[in-house]
TrEMBL record:
Residues 157-226 form the Siroheme biosynthesis protein Met8 C-terminal domain. SUPFAM superfamilies: NAD(P)-binding Rossmann-fold domains (SSF51735), Siroheme synthase middle domains-like (SSF75615). InterPro entries: Met8-like, Met8_C, NAD(P)-bd_dom_sf, Sirohaem_synthase_central, Sirohaem_synthase_N. The keyword Iron-sulfur does not apply. This is precorrin-2 dehydrogenase. Its EC number is 1.3.1.76. Residues 129-154 form the Siroheme synthase central domain. GO terms for molecular function: ferrochelatase activity; precorrin-2 dehydrogenase activity. PANTHER family: SIROHEME BIOSYNTHESIS PROTEIN MET8. Keywords: NAD, Oxidoreductase, Porphyrin biosynthesis.
Amino acid sequence: MASDSDASLLVAWQLKNKHVLVVGGGDVASGRIHHVLVAGAKITVVAPQDGLHPVTKWHIDTTPDRITYYDRVFTPADLDGKDFVLTAIDDADASRDIASRCRALKLPVNVADDPPSCDFFFGSQIRKGPLQILISTNGRGPKLANIIRRRIEESIPSHAGEAIERVGTLRERLKARAPGVGGEVGRRRMKWMADLCTAWEIEELASLTDEQMDRMLTEGWEKDVVLSPQDLGVQPAAHSDSE
Ligand SMILES: C[C@@]1(CC(=O)O)C2=NC(=C\c3[nH]c(c(CCC(=O)O)c3CC(=O)O)Cc3[nH]c(c(CC(=O)O)c3CCC(=O)O)/C=C3\N/C(=C\2)[C@@H](CCC(=O)O)[C@]3(C)CC(=O)O)/[C@H]1CCC(=O)O
Ligand SMILES: NC(=O)c1ccc[n+]([C@@H]2O[C@H](COP(=O)([O-])OP(=O)(O)OC[C@H]3O[C@@H](n4cnc5c(N)ncnc54)[C@H](O)[C@@H]3O)[C@@H](O)[C@H]2O)c1
């Protein structure tokens, strides 16, 4: 078992409009490209045309506004202006050379299949709308990460993504109605949201309409009460799938 000092920091890294370099165009690179595209990054792919995986080629062809492609091997100048580097090449020496150049430039780098060269590892990922789950075995057993991911996927309530979307909208509307960071209003907002999320089933939250949100805010927030699903005429949900 990993001791505390071996553990990784798990964060949700914001890549929107950051510039990511992907070195390599094979199967692994195609997965990396998908993950960073979902995160809103601008991408440069450097890999000879003859080694391109069809999915990598498809990403390059279908996302020309976000992906710049160079049909050649890596050169050190490729690191200029980048925020984040991913290598997925079948050449261990070239990978380590890229990793050490990144380290000298303090550029975060992942080298597929070479944990000692990585600043961060990829993990097995689940996305359901805004819900993001990453399973990491800290490099110990990637296949087990894959197996545990499948089990977790089966246990996620079926409407979790929609419920989070609706709660996100409600929070935005509440913050617009009762603005301000921290302080008394922040504490009141947090307690009201937490009580509401606890009182409602995930399926019920997922079905919230804009009109019901209006009533929650005007008849609930303004009077410092949390309306129940019954108060708003929502059919009680059967207990959520996770139970
Ligand atoms: C999670 C996932 C994400 C992704 O890559 O997107 C991922 N590997 C996946 C699958 C997978 N990889 C391998 C197998 C074959 C079976 C096996 O070896 O177990 C399978 C299973 C399969 O293919 O089903 C081979 C392998 N992987 C690494 C090494 C090198 C080494 O360990 O030294 C070797 C060669 C070992 C050898 O030669 O013997 C290393 C890494 N792989 C990582 C991530 C990082 C740590 C993840 C963690 O902490 O859990 C890390 C450290 C580096 C990195 O960030 O790339 C993805 C599953 C996604 C999914 O399906 O949900
Ligand atoms: N972490 C993981 O989950 C995982 C899983 C499988 C494989 N791997 C490893 O990841 C690496 C890539 O795997 P793959 O299946 O995508 O390999 P691949 O052979 O399909 O692709 C390698 C790619 O790298 C390109 N390339 C080689 N040298 C290059 C250079 N100097 N500059 C630019 N591009 C270069 C090739 O043209 C090709 O596009 C391998 O080392 C493999 O062992 C990691």
